[in-house]
Amino acid sequence: MKNIITTDKVNLFYGESQALKDITLDFLPNTVTALIGPSGCGKSTYLRLFNRMNDLIDNVKITGNITVEGENIYQKDTNIVELRRKVGMVFQKPNPFPKSIFENVAYGLRVNGVNEMSVLKEKVEFSLKQAALWDEVKDKLKKSAFELSGGQQQRLCIARALAIEPSIVLMDEPASALDPISTAKIEELIYELKSKYTIVIVTHNLQQAGRVSDYTAFFYLGELIEKGITKELFINPKNIKTQNYITGRFG
Amino acid sequence: MIKFLKSIFEKLIEGTLFLSSTITTLAIVLIIIFLFKEGIGTFNQTPIEDGFSLVVNKNNPINELSAPEIKNIFDQNITNWKTVGGKNDSITLFNLDNIGEFYSDSAIGENFEFLPQCISDYTEKNPGVVAFVSTRYTEKGFTGKILTTPKVKVTEFISQKEWFPTAQPAAQLGVLPLILGTLWVSFGAILIALPLGLSTSIYMAEIASPKIRNILKPLIELLAGIPSVVYGFFGLVVIVPEIQKLFNLPVGETALAGSIVLAIMALPTIITISEDALRTTPKSMKEASLALGANKWQTIYRVVIPYSGSGITAATILGIGRAIGETMAVLMVTGNAAVIPHSFLEPVRTIPATIAAELGEAPQGGLHYKALFALGCILFIITMAINLIVGYISSKKKYNAK
Ligand SMILES: Nc1ncnc2c1ncn2[C@@H]1O[C@H](COP(=O)(O)OP(=O)(O)OP(=O)(O)O)[C@@H](O)[C@H]1O
Ligand SMILES: [Mg+2]
User: Fold this and answer.
1) Which of A10, A79, A169, A235 would staple A64 via disulfide (CB 3.0–4.6 Å)?
2) Average pLDDT, rounded, for chain A
3) What CATH number labels B176-401?
4) Strand partners, B129
5) Where do the CATH 3.40.190.10 domains begin and end in chain B?
6) What is the spatial distance between Cα B24 and Cα B10, in angstroms, rounded to a whole number?
7) Which of B213, B292, B303 would best serve as a mutation to test chain A binding (most A beta carbons within 10 A)?
8) Distance (Å, rounded) from C-alpha A250 to C-alpha A226?
9) Is the pLDDT score of A52 beyond 50?
10) Residue B236 CA to ligand 2 centre (angstroms)
């Protein structure tokens, strides 16, 4: 199978300080990869490379080669809107827009020029179903998204990301602000979404990484220490730092 | 021991805080009560000055005249009793100054001691007469009819179109032109200030580099500290002549001049508060929008502005509040004509300007004085109403975000 995302010798600097060091790592389509590592090791920074969210920060310098679906995404003429349609993102805290449930999910379509109500309705319903939220909200699509619980809001954010039919979904600690039941729902969802999407998920919860991911990559102080099939990495880590981390000796 | 002192100290602070908030509340309540007590007094008085009355022939069927009727009669706009519901008979105005034309000095008496009889006699002989005389002359032996004047009514106060609080014989207390003047000037100011203020705040919050923002923000805050007379003066020497030239008007003191000056004055409030509101939009929400393929403008328009909607509305209310209540600058540039405005290029007069200009001349406790307080009440009610409406709209918007 061909890699859907590749990163080759990637370095990233916030001004003078280097946040990512020489990272070479690839992702297979229709897999879930977990990024783990202690706080500040660069997981979010790495994740945000794939939809160029780091562009929003001043003074960021990136070297190396990053491709999504075979295309270098850091070229001068890269169409960022197009890229972000392909690479959806779910954030740590649920962050719905101050709009109705329906308009939240329709947002990505609308800003990309889709305004036909019949198309919107169909896609909103489809996305909400995929995010396992449809049954809970189908009678109150016009209500404000803020009326949903935290867990529902996070699934709404997932539906919102899915509505524009990306091929890759990035999740930065999507369940860290949620209760155990909502977390379980999100995990179940990630498992189901795998058949259609490639998922990269940052998590601090090692059990969660173990439950949802096929592959796990361990970051430490801006370096990629180890990557492997999740089960193998957890049972039999090759690097002592990985072993220390997963046995809870630091981080 | 130290513990005990400390607890006393804490109680003391608590007490002080409680006391200051109580005093503040009390002061506000007292001011409002004072305002309304004086203002409502207007409606317990008649528009005719105390100590005077209007008299007519005893056979005249008219019993009372309203303030506008009195004015029209004495301005000779109404010349027949039929117009005000009486007999078909022309109206004869009688002025005390001309009494010498009808009665000899000896008939009046050396010390005017027979003046009442003369007036009585004159009214008796002239069926169409109406005279405005001191009540001293109508006490005993007076054979004419003393007209009653109805008390000032709230509805008339608000709906009548003439404001001549010192007019003789009857004060004309129509505040409609003043209310409309206030609304016109404020509305115009908001029309100018809101788009300008909003774009500036968006620029500062979302687009400007921190360096530019650090220069711009203190500058705008400085603008808020300039006394309003200075704005008025600026308006008078710069804006007023420009408007006069630009529109080729006889005078440049117009509603438009007032609106422009007020807009400049309201800008700092609107800009700083809405900028703060725009800045409260969580970064993650903007990122979510961008991550969905929206560009910067779509994000501002579809996420940042709706999110900070209530803050922007608050900024607008405070802006309007300043515009509606502002006195000095408006007084200087609007021309102060108490007529109903038909365009922005006519002179107008606002409620605060009226109060400021007239309160000094109005005898304390008199009708004029009380009417000015009633104007204050109207201003208070308008501002309250705007606050409530905007508050209601913004609270609704928050929960049923579109
Ligand atoms: N906008 C920024 N400007 C400067 N430095 C930054 C910025 N964002 C992150 N960093 C630095 O880059 C390093 C990596 O940060 P990053 O957020 O990627 O870590 P992380 O692994 O996601 O941590 P966490 O688990 O706490 O989310 C940290 O040292 C952080 O201080
Ligand atoms: Mg992170």
Assistant:
1) A10
2) 92
3) 1.10.3720.10
4) B92
5) 52-150
6) 21
7) B292
8) 16
9) yes
10) 58
Q: Which residues of A touch B288 (CB under 8 A)?
A: 89, 91, 95, 97, 157, 160
- A117: tokens are 């109500």
Q: Is the pLDDT of residue B321 over 90?
A: no
Atom 4, ligand 1: residue with shortest CA distance: A14
Q: Own/partner pairs for B99-105, CB < 8 Å, 24+ apart?
A: none
CB contact under 8 A, A111 and B285: no
Of the candidates B295, B302, B401, the beta carbon closest to that of A100 is on B401
Q: Whose CA is nearest to atom 28 of ligand 1?
A: A40
Q: What angle do CA B8, B9, B15 make, to 5 degrees?
A: 90
Q: How many residues does chain B have?
A: 402
Does B400 have pLDDT greater than 50? no
Report the chain A residue with the minimal C-alpha distance to residue B287: A53
Higher pLDDT, A125 or B399: A125
Q: What ipTM was predicted for this assembly?
A: 0.91
Distance B98 CA to ligand 1 centre (A): 96
pLDDT tens by residue, A210-251: 999 999 999 999 999 999 999 999 999 999 999 999 888 654
User: 3-class DSSP state for residue A226?
Assistant: strand
Residues of chain B with CATH 1.10.3720.10: 176-401
| Alpha carbon nearest to ligand 1 atom 9, residue | A45
Could you tell me the maximum CA-CA distance found in chain B, to the nearest angstrom?
103
Q: Report the top-level CATH class of B52-150.
A: alpha beta
Strands of chain A, DSSP E? 5-14, 17-27, 32-36, 60-68, 71-72, 87-90, 168-172, 198-202, 215-220, 223-229
CA distance B358 to A7: 78
**Nearest-atom index, ligand 1, CA of A204:** 25
Q: What is the mean pLDDT of residues B223-233?
A: 89
φ, ψ dihedrals at A199, nearest 5°: -120, 130
Q: Which residues of A touch B (CB under 8 A)?
A: 51, 53, 56, 81-82, 84-85, 88-89, 91-93, 95, 97-100, 103, 107-108, 110-112, 142-147, 157, 160-161, 164
Ligand 2 centre to CA of A78 (Å) is 26
C-alpha dist (Å) from residue A211 to A39, A47, A236, B2, B400 = 21, 20, 16, 59, 38
Cross-chain residue pair B288–A89, CB shorter than 8 Å: yes
Separation of alpha carbons A97 and A227, rounded Å:
36
Question: How many Å from the N-terminal Cα to the C-terminal Cα in chain A?
Answer: 34
CA of B80 to the centre of ligand 2 (A): 90
Query: Which has more confidence, A96 or B136?
Result: A96
Provide the β-strand partners of residue A224.
Answer: A219
Chain A neighbors of B309, CB-CB under 8 A: 98
Residues of B with CB under 8 A from a CB of A: 282, 284-285, 287-295, 298, 302-303, 306-307, 309, 398-402
